Here is the input.
Amino acid sequence: MSGNESDRPERPSEVDGTAHLFRALGKQIKALRRNAGLSQAELAAVTHCSEDLISSIERGVRVPQPDFLLVADPALGAGGVLAAAADDVREAVSRARVRHPDWFRSFAKAEAEAVALHYYEVQAVPGLLQTKAYAHAVMRHRRPVWDEQTIEKWVSDRLGRQTLLDKWPPTTISFVLEEAILHRPTGGPEVHREQVRHIYNIAKRHTIHLQVMPLLMKEHPSLDGAFTLLTPKGRREVAYTEIYGHSRLITDPEEVRVYTERYGIIRAQALTPPESLDMIEKMLGEL
Here is the structure.
């Protein structure tokens, strides 16, 4: 489950302008920040987010959430320009979610609204943690081959989902990655190094819990494949699985209990978050 997207993507009848909107908005925020004499770190402190997020927004690879725009507007002396864009951004994000395939929409909606998300991945970096270059590499090497327009669309959609990592108040989010994922040089040495460093930076956030399951672990409670656990607001936890484009959103309490039990054991057997950070940092020194 490298990102929870279908192998049979929809082809919209018209080119969506969402990516262009976010890139233009990012450039405006960068210009306003510089005019205000603020560094990325200073703007991050004022808007209660990470410096990495500010950088990503300014480069147009992350979506500036409406709440961010409302707080950033007075901080940057934008005179209401950014605040005025909040509704447009909200509408654009909503429109982007609608573009997901029918079978994926139930998961995408649940993921966006969840109060807790737990991801266990065995083959590739989860979509929420992928860099743009890594996502391109994953989609470019799949078979049957996609055309460039389709690849660009899905890369944009995948990166758009990553705003979940920056919500405030934060969603409870945890990841358990099989160690093999970190060793697979998807996209080549430079893409691989950038991706591992990105995982390391995300894992350092106090709002994210990331663990690595060592290759040498003798016992394993779930060799059946990857899965995700979601807790929708005001509702019971559900599970999601996907293989070869066939997805399943599981709501039966007894079936969900099995996945919850497995995830609990996996987390207990995996390296702790500090140990996982140490492993990834060591890997970076060797790449």
